[in-house]
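Re: Re: ligand-bound prediction request (bumping)

Still looking for help on this. To restate: I need the protein modeled with zinc ion bound, output as structure tokens. Inputs repeated here so nobody has to scroll up.
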Amino acid sequence: MNQFLSRRSFILILTMSILKIIFKPMKVLASSLNSKEEWNLSKEEWKSKLSTESYYILREEGTERAFSSQLNNEKRKGVFHCAGCDFPLFLSDKKYDSGTGWPSFWDSIQGSVETKVDFKLIVPRTEYHCSRCGGHQGHVFNDGPAPTGKRYCNNGLALRFVPD
Ligand SMILES: [Zn+2]
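Reply:
Sorry for the wait, this slipped through. Here it is.
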């Protein structure tokens, strides 16, 4: 019995190690990709520019607690900008209540975000980030409403809302 268990543990450890090796080269932070040169700031520069919470999300691909952002209930007309570089990312008429606890949009402003696949939860997810500063915003899923069928699930702390 003990031998069986240790054999199972061995196989598990072996499998995990192999997975780690396979996925390691893909663990590239979004914030290190695609940033335009003038927004290619150092860690220290970003830390001095952002709150601790926003830094964690934008530059370290963190996720805020569900239902923690005031922007979740923001229903006014306006534009949602990147909290890192102030680039306009989403329009209020593309925002909808997804019930997930994060500000959700069914479309982004054209060219404002770029995507990559991440494996943080093992299952591949499509991460997206600001196309100007590379700051992580959230993940995009294919269970959104018509006409796009997309759900951009965004961290409120990564956004700044500018009412019309
Ligand atoms: Zn940005």
